[in-house]
């Protein structure tokens, strides 16, 4: 969902508001919540909820109490209470939906330690805010250089300024514990501001930086995903994926979040599906499961003495054999069941009725052009003419 200023510009190129999710309509931000109660009025005698939701730099939301009864709406820039000084943020939600969001995040709306909203931001506040935000990239680059000089095993991934410009929060990732006391002293001396270091995980780092995934789309964590569920290798096993770290890992170096998207569907399908550890007992010998296809409800079994000879059985056939084995009955052989599953190769699976070109059309040898044929004809005529002259 984009804002009005994100329309198409010249030559079909996206125009973009260039505000990185801080435009007035707040429509190009992944943390935006649709206010479906905006057109509804409160019952008589009811007061509006005095807490609003405020967003900071596209990645952090907090709740603030509107103690001054200010008339606030989504998109308003406000000055909020901070540990020291004030911060500048954008109102993203008001009204009863804020109560729902606080309940979802398990926060008490009656708590006394909820910070307050001071005022609507003045033009001076907004100018200072935009000025310090423009410095973030330069300071991030300089802070990385200082960390390299101090030989610290850490990576500074993002910087977030407080709205009044008196404090900056540096987000970093590190494998082990880092002693950055000297780093804080050097950065405070170089930048003239108070420094706060905050360690984040690799998933949070990918969320802040963004990028393009192996699917060709923007990373889910940087566009719409707001919470991180744990991903384990069992999710790949249930979906019968190859346990290749290079294919299963995302840009954060951890397992891809999308491995959980279809996991519930696979778990439901596997409830009544025979286990791959199943052994079938036949008169010909014991058979082991070699492969299973959940979508086609097919399983491939092979005898212990013939591991390279696979027999395809349906899920119902395998269940039938298992039930007979439980009764201590053995079937004659797997071939009797596999005969019914032989695919007729003569049956047309796909027929080209639209007139598409063959995929191997570029593999055909090129024909000689008329120009080359004419040149060859001229050469032959010249040779015949010279022969006649010699004979004469």
Automatic annotation (TrEMBL):
It comes from the Bacteria. Residues 364-392 have a biased composition (Basic residues). Residues 361-392 are annotated as: Disordered. Residues 115-200 form the PSP1 C-terminal domain. Pfam families: PSP1. InterPro entries: PSP1-like, PSP1_C. This is PSP1 C-terminal domain-containing protein.
């Amino acid at each position: 969902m984009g804002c009005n200023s994100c329309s198409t510009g010249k030559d079909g190129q996206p125009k973009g508001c260039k505000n990185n999710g801080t435009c007035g309509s707040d429509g190009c931000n992944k943390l935006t919540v649709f206010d479906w109660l905006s057109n509804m009025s409160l019952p008589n005698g009811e007061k509006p909820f005095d807490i609003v939701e405020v967003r900071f730099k596209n990645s952090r939301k907090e709740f603030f109490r509107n103690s001054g009864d200010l008339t606030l709406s989504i998109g308003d820039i406000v000055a909020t209470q901070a540990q020291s000084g004030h911060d500048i943020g954008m109102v993203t939600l008001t009204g009863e939906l804020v109560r729902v969001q606080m309940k979802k995040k398990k926060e008490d709306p009656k708590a006394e330690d909820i910070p307050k909203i001071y005022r609507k931001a003045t033009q001076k506040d907004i100018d200072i805010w935009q000025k310090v935000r423009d410095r973030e990239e330069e300071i991030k680059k300089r802070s990385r250089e200082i960390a390299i000089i101090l030989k610290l095993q850490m990576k500074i991934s993002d910087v977030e300024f407080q709205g009044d410009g008196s404090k900056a929060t540096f987000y970093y990732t590190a494998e082990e514990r880092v002693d950055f006391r000297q780093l804080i002293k050097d950065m405070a001396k170089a930048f003239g501001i108070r420094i706060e270091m905050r360690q984040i995980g690799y998933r949070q780092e990918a969320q802040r930086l963004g990028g393009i995934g192996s699917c060709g789309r923007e990373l889910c964590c940087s566009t719409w995903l707001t919470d991180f569920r744990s991903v384990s290798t069992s999710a790949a096993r249930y979906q019968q994926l190859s346990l290749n770290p290079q294919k299963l890992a995302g840009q954060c170096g951890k397992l891809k979040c999308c491995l959980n998207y279809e996991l519930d569907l696979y778990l439901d399908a596997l409830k009544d599906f025979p286990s791959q550890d199943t052994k079938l007992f036949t008169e010909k010998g014991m058979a082991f499961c070699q492969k299973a296809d959940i979508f086609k409800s097919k399983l491939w079994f092979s005898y212990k003495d013939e591991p390279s000879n696979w027999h395809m059985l349906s899920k119902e056939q395998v269940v039938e054999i298992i039930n007979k084995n439980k009764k201590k009955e053995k079937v004659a052989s797997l071939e009797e069941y596999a005969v019914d599953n032989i695919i007729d190769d003569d049956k047309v699976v796909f027929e080209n009725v639209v007139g598409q070109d063959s995929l191997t059309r570029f593999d055909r040898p090129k024909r000689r052009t008329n120009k080359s044929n004419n040149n060859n004809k001229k050469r032959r005529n010249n040779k015949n003419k010279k022969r006649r002259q010699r004979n004469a």
